[in-house]
Amino acid sequence: MAATLCRILLPKQGWLPFTQCVRHGSKSVTRHKRPLHFLKQKLMSVTRYIPPPRPAPPGAYPRQTIRDQEDDPFTILVKKNLKNVFQESKMIAVVQNSGSTADEMMLLKYKLHKHGITVKFFPNQVVRSFLKDSTYSNMAPLFIGHTVLFISKEPKVKEMLSSLRTSRHMLLLGACIDNTLLSAQGVVSYSKLPSVAVVQGELVSGLTLLTSQTAAMLQRHPAQLSALLQQHVKQQSSEGAPKAQEAT
Amino acid sequence: MATSSKVTVVLKAVKNITAQFCPFESNVGSTRMFLSVMSSHKVRATNLNCEVISTVKHDRSEPVVEITYLDGDKLMLKGAKLNCSEMLSAFQSMCSAKELQAKLAAAKK
After folding, report:
1. Residues of B numbered 4-43 whose beta carbons fall under 8 angstroms of chain A's beta carbons: which are they?
2. pLDDT tens profile A166-210
3. C-beta atoms surrounding A173 within 10 Å
4. Quick one: DSSP state of residue B23?
5. By a Cβ cutoff of 8 Å, what residues of chain A touch chain B?
6. Which of A68, A134, A160, A229 is the most buried (most CB within 10 A)?
């Protein structure tokens, strides 16, 4: 419906018209999107509203940095327990348990209890975090998978090794005996060591060997002693002469 | 850390499994997991004649699992750079191949 130039006939003289349609042929309100004038299109695209990026809701993603979280009370209790264990016991052996049954475990516990060795289980994560802060940090890589701790106040290695040999599933990984970290072979060689008294006796005898020999020699008959000394002087002079000949 | 044991491992064609590792190294986790899976009850019950022998060493050597089959073949899994699930899948594919061979041989007879 093309509207022509419409002029409202003035009802009275001297009145300005209310409406003056100057343009015709195109409507402003259409059912389809009217194509914008190019300049207007450019302006609209330049001045388009870009909203600021909204952050993700608080619980959407996990935290990227693992902050030092406070331990829960159970962990604190277990760590206290572990601290006591490390302080009181001289021998702490780490054993990997690969599929032993409950009755096998019971028998093993019974055998070890007779020698004063207790079998303890601790969660690996707690143990690792405890060891990280303490002086036993080199034991941390042992605690992977299903591990059992054999703890005793006296280092009874032979009995422990004999009971482990009979059980098929327990595998000795390492031990901390007298604040020294030992591997499995170290533990075996430790078990073969003689007792402290024997070793001390050997050391003392080795040190006093020469002095005891001289003391025994001096206590002999003086004729024998003088003969020995003369022989010694002859040997010294004979050794000195060939050396002088070699030098020249 | 535990692998899902929904896929059962069958040891019918295996003669024995030997493993050696050094527990103080950091690349031993997958080998130990593999060993624990192999030594579990379900898996051992599939073949009671199969032995799982593990040696603990301290010489910075790489962790190695050697699987000997009944027909003499050996599968060596070097666990230093492998994942536990990768080792399991390799082992299972070999086992299934062996079973197929055995079935074919039985069918021929």
Report:
1. 23-26, 28-29, 32-33, 35-36, 38-41
2. 888 888 999 998 889 998 899 999 888 888 888 899 999 988 998
3. 26
4. T
5. 96, 98-99, 101, 138, 141-142, 144-146, 169, 171-174, 183-186
6. A160
